[in-house]
């Protein structure tokens, strides 16, 4: 099998840098769309058929690129997001793009601009080199994964519904750069507390402190964590009150829930919702839901993993597998029963942290595996 020419790691890093240096926080649709414009131009020039779904609800567009190769068979879908958790300005202050030895740093480079770029580059190379593929390829680049994919979930699921397989180039996990065959499900909730304000000195007894009520609720949520069961909760951020001399009339927090099995998603979502009450001048409301079902390991997904592992060996590296606590858009497609393999991006460390980086010398190897999967599945 002739290798697909995707470029050296040095060449790939130079182009990836141009992606990283367009800062793309989820809540800045114009910034996200600037990067999507760049990707669309490259894919159009290579001959892809382009569909662009306009953004809504304060998010950017969803870009869908299709190839004509392998027609007649169910497609392979590869889906990556271009949004990051980093606000505009980090690039020019505390997180500049930089290379230190075998590490390349920058906001969003690991989660997951490197992986989305490798997917883009693989599709572009297949098209420009007229590489025959067993199946058509559909590439999605989405704008809002970091906030739960509220606008991109529907097009991802629509494309996956008639796909043979779904590949997710999220970061390779762990110190050995693992592929991901299972993930926890995730839920997001908001707790709001209404109390009654009063002077904190002269009329203390007339007040009902929303912050005190919230503190008790936070402890109750934290106590739901059951590590043996694979259930974790996290409360952040929190807010409440306005002044030290006023009994707080309002407070609130967001809750992150992670579960290992679908049944626990329903059980613990209800436990969090059951924290709502109204008594003695305090009213608590709870909104939210499980927004990503667990991605459970399946025989079909493991067959995809074995294919990727064999290709990795051909290109000179081992590809272990990993069960990961974080969710991705692969949770949606796996829950639909579509064979899904995740963690096919670049290895590195520090997702959502100031030390975020990739091991850039692996870009070419990992890019070749992704391109070969798209060609051979």
Automatic annotation (TrEMBL):
<dbReference type="GO" id="GO:0046872">
    <property type="term" value="F:metal ion binding"/>
</dbReference>
<dbReference type="Pfam" id="PF07687">
    <property type="entry name" value="M20_dimer"/>
</dbReference>
<dbReference type="Pfam" id="PF01546">
    <property type="entry name" value="Peptidase_M20"/>
</dbReference>
<feature type="active site" description="Proton acceptor">
    <location>
        <position position="145"/>
    </location>
</feature>
<dbReference type="InterPro" id="IPR036264">
    <property type="entry name" value="Bact_exopeptidase_dim_dom"/>
</dbReference>
<dbReference type="InterPro" id="IPR002933">
    <property type="entry name" value="Peptidase_M20"/>
</dbReference>
<keyword id="KW-0378">Hydrolase</keyword>
<feature type="active site">
    <location>
        <position position="83"/>
    </location>
</feature>
<dbReference type="InterPro" id="IPR017150">
    <property type="entry name" value="Pept_M20_glutamate_carboxypep"/>
</dbReference>
<keyword id="KW-0479">Metal-binding</keyword>
<dbReference type="InterPro" id="IPR011650">
    <property type="entry name" value="Peptidase_M20_dimer"/>
</dbReference>
<protein>
    <submittedName>
        <fullName>M20 family peptidase</fullName>
    </submittedName>
</protein>
<dbReference type="InterPro" id="IPR050072">
    <property type="entry name" value="Peptidase_M20A"/>
</dbReference>
<feature type="domain" description="Peptidase M20 dimerisation">
    <location>
        <begin position="181"/>
        <end position="279"/>
    </location>
</feature>
<dbReference type="GO" id="GO:0016787">
    <property type="term" value="F:hydrolase activity"/>
</dbReference>
